[in-house]
């Protein structure tokens, strides 16, 4: 478990103070895959470095497994760090050492004996699928393979937490996917809590169960990925969501729309159960409302289907009212799309 | 025209003296310079054992010694030399100033080599909970080893140049031969021969350093 309590971090460079973090509070529960997303400069790198005290907070507390890292002596802190694995964007492997020795380093630091090290390293290399590369140098590996070595190294000391600092940002989409699947396996098989920082929404979508969105040193939105993706409140969050889920009408549909009297546009958001129920059929049949579908899309997040439909409803206001009521009861989240008439008038 | 005033024995003796002076001062100079270089890197702001006091003393002291021309240093520290080797002339008397000359030079070269190590690797080491000594031993030095060998190669060649001036205190060596017989007595044969020997020596050491660095890196 990781907990940040009202954390501030200020850097002073050449007499100029830079506030990197301005009052961050968050809680990562055991077994979570917690994503932190933000544009560069949002402070997410600083944030993840606080969790293993590579950076110390200027104010506030960082608690790992219930212990305040600030209360530890240097020695205790070093011991605590062995419980927190970390992987990096640029892998940070020792170029002078073979894959085997790179993975063995945390064990060497722990002064394990040779037989134990050999057994553990072989086990780890097998887990990440690199048994045949034990004798290679990092420069002979591809980016994805290097990150696998990084992961094996991070797991060597049996940590309960794994920190991923932009771990897939230097990889191509396909390699990214395979690394993410590996992280998911680590989380599931070893029950390791994973904290990921990234600027790619697809990373969050693919493996995280919780997400925090950062901007200018603050968390502007956090919660379960499903909630944040389903109903992004902040503009930055909406922009991130847009990068993986298209949720607005195409321009050509928008252009051909006619602003008719007695018709209104609604964005219907379905999640989970409601996504598999014939809600639209019901409102047509029972309330006699004309439904014109302008946009529809479904996305899977956290093994839950998230559906978005933009409809134009035509009919008697009281019928429309009743239809909306019905959908509300069936857990369809309804947003009125107001701007479309204005849009059209402007064009 | 090809006549010369020195014997081949003299020549051989000079070569041995040069090798002695370079060898001993390189060895002792490294024993002092390598730790000093490491100290410069780890105590600098942001280093693994940041120590502003030590760094701000060490840094200018090394600069001051390095700014003295060797010929001046040689003479200036005669009392120190006498205290250490109980004589102020001869090969062993030349070795003391050579060490004092080369140690800060090696410290700087080592500093540069270590600063080239990817900071990400040190961050990884810190994230693993490595102690400062472990950071140096398991991360910093192995990553810099190739570059360190090249640095020591440069230092060795610098030393060969400095030994030429060791003749001032009767240190002998090939460089001294070149100055005393070749330059001051216009003995062209000695001049050419010493230059050729120095070229071979420098080339050999550089190639050796390059080969060693490449072999040890293997990546």
From TrEMBL, chain A:
<dbReference type="InterPro" id="IPR018449">
    <property type="entry name" value="NIL_domain"/>
</dbReference>
<dbReference type="InterPro" id="IPR027417">
    <property type="entry name" value="P-loop_NTPase"/>
</dbReference>
<dbReference type="InterPro" id="IPR003593">
    <property type="entry name" value="AAA+_ATPase"/>
</dbReference>
<protein>
    <submittedName>
        <fullName>Methionine ABC transporter ATP-binding protein</fullName>
    </submittedName>
</protein>
<dbReference type="Pfam" id="PF09383">
    <property type="entry name" value="NIL"/>
</dbReference>
<keyword id="KW-0067">ATP-binding</keyword>
<dbReference type="InterPro" id="IPR041701">
    <property type="entry name" value="MetN_ABC"/>
</dbReference>
<dbReference type="InterPro" id="IPR017871">
    <property type="entry name" value="ABC_transporter-like_CS"/>
</dbReference>
<dbReference type="InterPro" id="IPR050086">
    <property type="entry name" value="MetN_ABC_transporter-like"/>
</dbReference>
<dbReference type="InterPro" id="IPR045865">
    <property type="entry name" value="ACT-like_dom_sf"/>
</dbReference>
<keyword id="KW-1003">Cell membrane</keyword>
<dbReference type="Pfam" id="PF00005">
    <property type="entry name" value="ABC_tran"/>
</dbReference>
<keyword id="KW-0472">Membrane</keyword>
<feature type="domain" description="ABC transporter">
    <location>
        <begin position="2"/>
        <end position="241"/>
    </location>
</feature>
<keyword id="KW-1278">Translocase</keyword>
<keyword id="KW-0813">Transport</keyword>
<keyword id="KW-0547">Nucleotide-binding</keyword>
<dbReference type="GO" id="GO:0005524">
    <property type="term" value="F:ATP binding"/>
</dbReference>
<dbReference type="InterPro" id="IPR003439">
    <property type="entry name" value="ABC_transporter-like_ATP-bd"/>
</dbReference>
<keyword id="KW-0029">Amino-acid transport</keyword>
TrEMBL record, chain B:
<protein>
    <submittedName>
        <fullName>ABC transporter permease</fullName>
    </submittedName>
</protein>
<feature type="transmembrane region" description="Helical">
    <location>
        <begin position="89"/>
        <end position="107"/>
    </location>
</feature>
<dbReference type="InterPro" id="IPR000515">
    <property type="entry name" value="MetI-like"/>
</dbReference>
<dbReference type="InterPro" id="IPR051322">
    <property type="entry name" value="AA_ABC_Transporter_Permease"/>
</dbReference>
<dbReference type="InterPro" id="IPR035906">
    <property type="entry name" value="MetI-like_sf"/>
</dbReference>
<feature type="transmembrane region" description="Helical">
    <location>
        <begin position="21"/>
        <end position="42"/>
    </location>
</feature>
<comment type="similarity">
    <text>Belongs to the binding-protein-dependent transport system permease family.</text>
</comment>
<feature type="domain" description="ABC transmembrane type-1">
    <location>
        <begin position="15"/>
        <end position="207"/>
    </location>
</feature>
<feature type="transmembrane region" description="Helical">
    <location>
        <begin position="54"/>
        <end position="77"/>
    </location>
</feature>
<keyword id="KW-0812">Transmembrane</keyword>
<dbReference type="Pfam" id="PF00528">
    <property type="entry name" value="BPD_transp_1"/>
</dbReference>
<keyword id="KW-0472">Membrane</keyword>
<keyword id="KW-1003">Cell membrane</keyword>
<keyword id="KW-1133">Transmembrane helix</keyword>
<feature type="transmembrane region" description="Helical">
    <location>
        <begin position="189"/>
        <end position="209"/>
    </location>
</feature>
<feature type="transmembrane region" description="Helical">
    <location>
        <begin position="159"/>
        <end position="183"/>
    </location>
</feature>
<keyword id="KW-0813">Transport</keyword>
